[in-house]
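Can anyone check this?
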Amino acid sequence: MKALMFGWEFPPHILGGLGTASYGLTKGMAQCGDMEITFVIPKPFGDEEKGFAHIIGASNTPVVYKDVDWDYVQQRYGYCMTPQEYYDLRSHIYGDFSYLKTNDMGCIEFSGKYPDNLLEEINNYSIVAGVIARKENFDIIHSHDWLTYPAGIHAKQITGKPFVIHVHATDFDRSRGNVNPQVFAIEKDGMSHADHIITVSNLTRKTVIDKYGIDPSKVTTVHNAVEPMSPEIQNMIVKKGTDEKVITFLGRITMQKGPEYFVEAAAKVLQKAKNVRFVMAGSGDMMNEMIRLAARRNIADRFHFTGFLKGKQVYEMLKASDVYVMPSVSEPFGISPLEAMQVGVPSIISKQSGCAEILDNAIKVDYWDIDALADAMYSIITYPSLYNFMKVEGKAEVDEIKWEYAGKKVIDIYKKLLHY
C-alpha cells in the first residue's frame, strides 16, 4: 500500500509536537510492513531521516521553468525531449503557474517555518501538491494538521484518491475559543472533503464533531505514542550540580499551554519548600509576560527560562528534572509527558489533555486548580515513596505505548477506505 502524506515539519527541524507525531506515526506505520510512504514537507534541510519514508520538498519541486538548461532537464527526468515536447508536457502536468514567484529552477520558495505570510505559503503548498500528486504513484492521501488540508484537497481533486486528514489540534485548542475565522474555514473545508478523519484523542474527536458539525461515523481516535529512547539517550548522565529539586514546564509558552498556572502554582510551592527550582523551557508569545509574572510573585530567583529546546536538549532537561508539569488549557494529546515518564520523571498533567485518556500513572488535575497543582508538585518532591512509585510505574506504562500500534490502526483505516 502506498500513501502520499503532506506534513509541515519533520525532525530534526521541528517547532512543536506536530513534527514529532508525524515522524513517530510514519515510522510506526513503516514497521508494520507492506507500507510505502512518500512524505511531503515545505522545505527539507537534507538531514531528515529517510529510512522509512521518501521525503519530498515542495521547495524542490518545479512548477514553472525559467531558462532551464536542457541538459539539466534531461538529467533530472531521465529522458530526452525537444523543447516543444517539454513545453507541451509541462503545460499538461503543471498548468500555467507563470504568475507565481519562483526561483531560477521554477520552484516556489518556502520558509520551512511558520512565517507572517503563513496563509500564502499554505496556498502555495497546495499548488505544489497538485504537481506532486500528478507525478507520484500512491493509493491514498493523508494530510497532517490544518496547514496541509488544502494540499490534500487539491491532490484528491486531481487524482480522485481517498483522502484522510489527521487532526493534531484545532483552532479551538490554540486560541482558547477565540477562533481565527480563516483558520476555522480551512479546518472545516478539510474535514468536509476528507473521506475519513483521524483525531489524536477523544477530546479532539468531540471538538471535531461538536464544533465543526462532522458525522461521528467519519471520525476515529488514534492516540499518539512515544518514540523508543536511543541508546545515547538511555545512557545519558545529567548532573544537576545541587541537591535542589527541579520542577519543569516544557512546551510552547502560549495561552493554550497554561503557563501562568504553572507560575502561580510554583509561588504556592515555594511558600512551603525552599529547596526547589522551577524551569520554563520553551518559547512563545507569553514568555515575557511569564517573566514579569514570576517577578511580581517574588520568585524570579527560583525561576529559570531556557528558551526553545529540541532533540537531545529536551532529554537533558527532562533527566535533570524531578517533576514534569503540563498544565495545558486544551491539549489535543501532549507527547511531552510520555517523554518525561519514559526517562523516569513523575508527571502532572491537566485533565483537559488527550494523553490523560491513556495514562494511569500520572497525576491529573484541572488546569485552573493551582492549589491542586501545587499540592501535587509538593507531594512528589516531599514523599520519596510517591516519587519512586511514579518513576517506576510511569516508565513501565509508557514503554508499552508504541507508535507501531498507532500505525497499525491507521493502516486499518486505509484498508477500509480502499476496500482491502
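Reply from J.R.: I decoded it. DSSP finds 16 helices and 13 strands in the chain.
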